[in-house]
Amino acid sequence: MARKSLSTILSLTIMVPLIEDAFALHLPFAKRATNSTPASPGATTLPMPIHFDGRGGYQVPVQMASNSPQTFNFTISTGSGLTFAAGQSCAECSNTPLYNQGASTSAVSLSGSDNTTWFGTTTSGNLIKENCGALLQNGSFWQYPNQTVVVVNSQSSSLLANGISGIFGLGTNGGSTGSSASGVGFNDTIYGQFLNRNPSRANFTFGMMLNSLPASGSASAGTDGGILHWTKPDDSFFDTSKVTYKTLADTSSSAGNTNGTTINTGQDWTVGLDGWVATVGNTHLSNTDTVVAVVDPLYPNIYLPGDQAKLIHDTINGSALSGASTLSGLSQTYSIPCDAQFSFGFLVGSQTFVLNPEQLILQQGNGTCVSAIEGFTDSSLTQYLVGSRFISTIYLIFNIPRDGPPTLGFSPRTSPGKSTNVGAIVGGTVGGVAFVIILGLVAFWYLRRRADRRMGPFEIEDADKPVQQAGVEPYMVGAPTPAQPSIAPTTPLPTQPLLLGEESHGPLPPPSYEEASSSAGSPVASRPNPPRGDVKGRRVPVPSMSISEMPEMTSPTETHAL
């Protein structure tokens, strides 16, 4: 009977803590704290659909005028905080509807004119105030009245043409805006006017999630090109625990920018990134210096200083300079083999966002391919321009506070309803293991009890007596000395950054190796167990390098394949 009682107590003693541990391990992961997006209290997400424009860009429907709204398709750009509309006198604005200022009773002319410089083009026009609205997913228009608008009467390229009638400006008008108009500032932006109308709001925040451009041809005009989560990012579309925020760089002058980086005027959302990495076959290249990058979906590709673009493409067998350019001659493209194997990524904080060959190799339709990485032809331009091919692989969070500098958040994407719940996985695994152990203990107890019933009363009584070999006396010297278990050293865990929950790059080099190092405890003396194998690890330091060649990595730094 003592045996049965002991078995029952042992089973219950082990089962209860296992069940408690399973729930205890599951709940903290399920309720893991995440980084909240900096949205004002009371803000709600207003989905604003984005469509492809049929020529390699994006567009949103916009209405102008209060009395008889005029509806147009505007491309989107972070380069300026003004709204641009092709006017009736714009001869270069062909094959697109034009804004009729004379038909609007809400338009108010302002003194002066504006000339804005973009990458590869300029626009000129008069300034007015106008009431505008942007189409939301529910079919209504989000109104933004009293908007400062440039009525474009001339341009140096076909920026406003072929179905695109204007620019939905998402800039802040901070620093050097590229606009020649005097007095243009934050109050002329969508954000400034919104905060003026809503004095209780501390900031204006929105999320951008673009769909990727096709690698061959162009998407049909009007097809799904992504979404703006207006006035509040939708955290079901991005990993809130892995958002890296970057403060906007001062674009008023090149002073203070690393490496003497020059900033082209007309670009508001300019941030410092933490370098780049590229892999071509077995060759690994990296730039471990901070790079100043303009982030703007108006431009399709990724644009690097000329020498760095050349370095990457010189490593690709069969690459050659091409005469094509997506920036009206400010950049140059490279033709590459259509089966080339290479990747490229930017480092943002402790994360590396990598583009694969399917996103970097662009089919030309005649059996030839070009690279999505272009190089600036002007050697004095040492900045970077991050266009939609990179933006469409991540989730961007734009935060414009009432006071203080704006910030830009970079995050991996997730799919609503398909995101991986680490807590549920861990909790379920632990619970499953505990359940199997419990079943094993119950089966053991049942079989033991069944065996005990089959034993006779004398056998049960004798079973509690020590078994002795015939003619051999047990060796007893005083009280037995209990075994002293040794304490196994614990493995130090790497410090986790609070914001990202990822391994930190430190001062960059993206290719790094890191493993924990530990050893198991020694066996207990009283009952020899099979010796435990030591858990060994080595940390192989990788020296910081600037645009250099590295051996092939076997355990790369954590990256996000995009």
Automatic annotation (TrEMBL):
Keyword terms, alphabetized: Hydrolase, Membrane, Protease, Signal, Transmembrane, Transmembrane helix
Record's protein name: Acid protease
Signal peptide positions on this chain: 1-24
Region named Disordered: 476-562
Low complexity bias (residue ranges): 513-523
Membrane-spanning intervals of the chain: 422-447
Record-annotated Peptidase A1 domain positions: 58-411
Organism (species): Phanerochaete sordida
Any one GO BP annotation for this protein: proteolysis
Coiled coil: none
MF terms (GO), sorted A to Z: peptidase activity
